[in-house]
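DATA SHEET
Item: assembly model
Revision: 1
Owner: S.N.
Input lines:
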Amino acid sequence: MTLTVDQTPFGFDPLRPGFRDDPYSVYRRQRETDPVHHSPLGMWTLTRHADCEAALRDQKLGHGEGMNGRIDHLSFLTLNPPDHTRLRGLVSRAFTPKVIRELRPRIQQRVSELLDPLRGAGEFDLIDAFAYPLPVMVISELIGVPVEDQRRFSGWSEEMARGIDPDFLQTPEQLVRRDQAKLEFDNYFRELIAARRGHPADDLLTDLLTGLIAAEQDGDKLDEQELLDILALLLVAGHETTVNLIGNGALALLRNPSQLAFLREHPDQAPAATDELLRYDPPVQFVSRIALADTEVAGHHVAAGEIVSMVLGAANRDPEAFPDPDRLDLTRQSGRLVSFGQGIHFCLGAPLAGMEGQLALAGLAALPDLTLVDDRPPYRDHFILRGVSTLRVRA
Ligand code: HEM
């Protein structure tokens, strides 16, 4: 089915050729002309920062039937309280700031291992050589997936990440591959869980299992499928998003050589620089909710059952929140980013992703003479996630 621009639920057409090259001018028009768009298909699209932030915090907007059949195995990402609270609590107990701080030297080591051979290597694809492998190494090590299995892990991630897009935007073959990937993923982890039950290790999987057993003892009902879905959520939420942070961030820096030079000269400014790159071209462009009851959103009555989409990529370029929003300025005091969401579903991996982004981008900036070969790289054909699929550079 081909929809015209006016018929699309968003008020603009994310599938139109050229949209991915510059979605931000399309968002700007939308924000200026129709910031609270209501489509004839019964869907709301918000593009102002304040509206997106408020909607993300509105507990009358949640998850439920009618959310267009997205992959239904993403654990608490797609659940409401109290189930959301229970499962998120279990993971946050294992995924502490201390665990993440302790990962820092290992991430730095992986960054160096991947980047050192690229110095003076000539032309290469930065996604393939760096942005894609780094986050899968980090998330596998964190969970406790053996090195020899990381390739398979990364293949499942690719299929399952596409699965977070609405079903109607995917081909039947893609849907079959997504479901197949989740089945293989579950089978693989059933074996790994069985192995860990007998032999605990120093990894997140063991901690989650310990939490699971404790929860069972407290009379809380938590089955193995719930644990498998949590693991899938960590992989899907944590891999492609971070790939896109590194890929989109590198592209923005290479297109703005003075900013790249600034980061090269001031690696200590990597935290603020990473926030600014997350604002400028965020890996997650949309999040959606369904109205659980009649409610008011941005001054409009929204009926129970209607879908509300928040365009994070548009909110981050709202001049009301970020002056001169189209300018990349690594010294910007970034303000209230919505790149990691807001409210009860705020990204659980934000501290990890931030640290990974900082080490990766500072590492890239330190490569002397890094330049773009192709200034208009192709994008992955994802809808919710935004990221280049290849980035040809020279070092
Ligand atoms: C730059 C990288 C990342 C970005 C831009 C990002 C973005 C987001 C966003 C926007 C949400 C909220 C979704 C919603 O409200 O519907 C979210 C949730 C989540 N993210 Fe991330 N994420 C990143 C990396 C990670 C990493 C590395 C992990 C874990 C290893 C992770 C784990 C999660 C989890 C578990 C949730 C669900 C939270 C909940 O529903 O309570 N993310 N992320």
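QC remark: Residues 1-6 have pLDDT under 50 and may be disordered.
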